[in-house]
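FORM 7B - TANDEM STRUCTURE REPORT

SECTION 1: FIRST PROTEIN
SEQUENCE AND TOKENS:
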Amino acid sequence: MTKRLRWGIISTAKINDALIHAINGAPRSDLRAVASRTTEAARAYASQRGIPTAYGTYEELLADPDIDVVYNPLPNKLHAEWTVKAAQAGKHVLLEKPLVTTMADFDVIAAAAQANNVVVFEAFMALHAPQNRKVAELVQQGRIGKLHLINSWFSYHLPPENADNIRLHPDLDGGSFWDVGVYPNSLSIMVTGGRAPQEVWAVQEIGESGVDVSMSAQLRFADDVVAQIYSGFRAPLVQGAQYIGTEGMIRTSAPWFPGMQGRTAFGADPVIQITNRDGSEENIALPATNPWQMEVEAMEACLLDGAAPVVPLSLSREFLRSALAVYESARTNKPVALTS
């Protein structure tokens, strides 16, 4: 391993722009290559974004000995296949959320990572953001007393006429919960200590293409902490999170993109708002940071310094267990109990 990480990206997905900006801004990373399904598409994309090498197949990029880490933003259905192939080629992988959509695929990735001694972690940029990590710290330290309730939501408008969008394709594991519901799901699990809920109840609205266009779920954790979470494709772009305890409430207005305008520009510093039981208020302002760059730097720390991932596979397993229970409850219209 060199003292700098050499990155390659498979596909020319729109989300890449956030990672390209992040890799270019990270202190110990270099973006070396991009791969697409055709040489022409890869060369055009690389030329537009200043990427030195373009490959016309994903296999060519994985065979490049000068690539240490691969970013995989492919459609959900392809996550397991290409992450396993990357691991078998000796590449570490930053894998876009959701990691996978079945437990069988999770087990395949975990086994490939272990067998090939590579790091694979889920690209939950919001869980790397200092604002959300500070909230988890405050809650776990008892700043608002005993936690009772979490409310969190993430939605945006994705109209049915946008039928070619992969998020609306059932055969690619689309759906609002897999796309944006995983954010409040994962945050609730992180804040409550890293374990999946004990019971889940969910309701969904199925859209024209057969995927969920809204999902409302209630997660019951140990100690009777309840999280109420929402995702949707038929609502305005809204995000937020609230945490209610016996001694107060914490609110964050932008938990998924704290302090950012779009994916590369900074706005105002994010603020954690605390309302105490007596009605007094306190604001904790944190410097705006790029959460995508923080996950790139987390990979640097893992591979160059021996640090543990911020989102290890063990935590991603809990996220997946909860998400699968949400979908099962919505499908059956019954509560679903999770076993350890």
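SECTION 2: SECOND PROTEIN
SEQUENCE AND TOKENS:
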Amino acid sequence: LTDAITDLDLVQLAESQDGAPLVTGGAAIARGLAENFIRRGHARSGAYHNETLDGPEILIAGSCSGATLGQIEQHKANHPDMAVDVDAVMSGQADVNTYLPFLLENAGKAPLLHSSASPEDLERIQKQYGREEVAARLDGLFGEIASQAVASGVRRVVVAGGETSGAVASALGFSSLRVGEEIDPGVPVLVSLTEKPVALALKSGNFGSPNFFEKALNKMVTL
């Protein structure tokens, strides 16, 4: 167990872990770990490609953190949004076909789909249906929505919420991603290495500035 004071410390610590099967620590350690993969030929470094990736976009928020709730409120002021009816989802009355049309019909307007709730509503929902069951059902819903949206031509996907991001990334199933420009500290643009590239922004709930959604979409246009 060790700590770091300077960036050089991070680099030296990361070098000492080259080849280790498991490393855990704060996000800053990634600053040095990348070089281990580059030396082994498992990754490449280089400047941004400066390519243009324009096309339909969607935003999905599954986090109930204070930062994400603020980001949602700021985005709603100028863009269409739709809240997921968790009760309807849990009872089987709402599914992908309930929400996907809203996102596709508002292409070009940065539509936002969110399940974020107030602490009181969240407590009520979790007590009624069970915390794990609600999370699993919503994550599955968001993953399927993102997958079908990309299949329909969406090229830019912004996701708020750690578990939600994991569900979306798993559903999209990209085998390789290029790390692009940083949107906010700890959150870069990711680009799929596919015939038709898709740009992703995957953030944990408490990450990002109040205008994160707008910043993410802008960063995705020029990669």
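SECTION 3: OBSERVATIONS ON SECOND PROTEIN
The chain has a mean pLDDT of 90.
The first helix runs from residue 7 to 16.

SECTION 4: SIGNATURE
Preparer initials: ____
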